[in-house]
Amino acid sequence: MKKLDTPSVVQIGLIVRDAEKTASAYAEVFGIPKPEVVMIADDSFAKTDFRGKASTAKGKAAFFDLGPVQMELIEPIGAPSTWEEFLRMHGEGIHHIAFRTGDMGAARDFLASKGMETIQHGGWDGGQYAYVDCAKQLGTILELLHNDK
Amino acid sequence: MKKLDTPSVVQIGLIVRDAEKTASAYAEVFGIPKPEVVMIADDSFAKTDFRGKASTAKGKAAFFDLGPVQMELIEPIGAPSTWEEFLRMHGEGIHHIAFRTGDMGAARDFLASKGMETIQHGGWDGGQYAYVDCAKQLGTILELLHNDK
Questions:
Q1: CB contact, 8 Å: B93 with chain A?
Q2: pLDDT-based confidence at A80, cuts 50/70/90?
Q3: How far apart are CA B128 and CA A108, in angstroms?
Q4: 8-state DSSP, B140
Q5: What dihedral do alpha carbons A76, A82, A88, A89 form, nearest 10°?
Q6: What pLDDT is stored for residue B132 in this prediction?
Q7: Labelling A106: which of A65, B44, B103, B121 has CA 20 to 30 A away?
Q8: What is the pLDDT of residue B44?
């Protein structure tokens, strides 16, 4: 791989202290339905790995569309995770922008060859994700998303 | 106004220390042309106002598309500005998400009625912008964009 699969950002990830409260505020300001708050990384298939070690950290999340891009609000639950680390170090704010890949291994290897290392990875029922620390090169964390089907 | 004009995010704004260097890194990772770095807020019509006072602060910026959303890299030049303040307080990272409005005054008043105050505003040859501090309610700064024509 000599570049990522696509330059199309599909999601903006925002770390918050209270997902319910922030979801209500977005719904009110933009006149959109209040999204449901769901648990993430809380199932056996999640297999969350943070900096090379298994982690039981979870999150409360709300997903909604801001036009062409999905917004994900994430309230960290437990530790360690990149979500908890970001909140502790930076406070609330935008944690990542996400891109789809057809080959998670090749995309991670490509970024690692440029000094951008995966700091957390895991999955959900239907896909896998990896957060890659590109703060030094790209000013933010990138998330790679892969759908199994 | 009882909600913003549109929930469609049109731009993600990233504060960086070196716009040239970061623009090159995005071009390389995503396989896109390296965007030109231009000066922003450097003309008489810019009329930059930061927290109620005129400011001569400027920025170096690079604009490019990540699929449906524009990415704006901003390297703060001089002070005071929300760009310089963000870099000093948070380091590099995503500073704002932007939305278009057809009525800048009404949009700013609507957000102010909810405790979200404009911290910087100004213009360019063809439009106006306002950065609204929604950190407490929405976890980030919103930018309102209005095209004059």
A1: yes
A2: very high
A3: 40
A4: E
A5: -150
A6: 98
A7: A65
A8: 85
Contact B94 A139 (CB under 8 A): yes
The residues with which A76 forms a beta bridge, in sequence order, are A59
CA pair distance A8, A24, nearest whole angstrom: 27
Residue (of A12, A37, A6) closest to A100 by Cα position: A6
ipTM: 0.97
Mean pLDDT on A134-149: 96
Q: Which of B1, B69, B71 to mutate to test the interface with A (most CBs of A within 10 A)?
A: B69
Structure tokens at A130: 């990896």
Nearest to A76 by CA among A100, A59, A101: A59
Number of neighbouring beta carbons within 10 Å of residue B113 = 10
Reported as half-sphere exposure (CB side, CA atoms, 13 A), residue A74 has a value of 27
pLDDT digits (tens, 9 = 90+) for A20-42: 999 999 999 999 999 999 999 99
The answer to whether the Cβ–Cβ distance between A90 and B94 falls below 8 Å is no
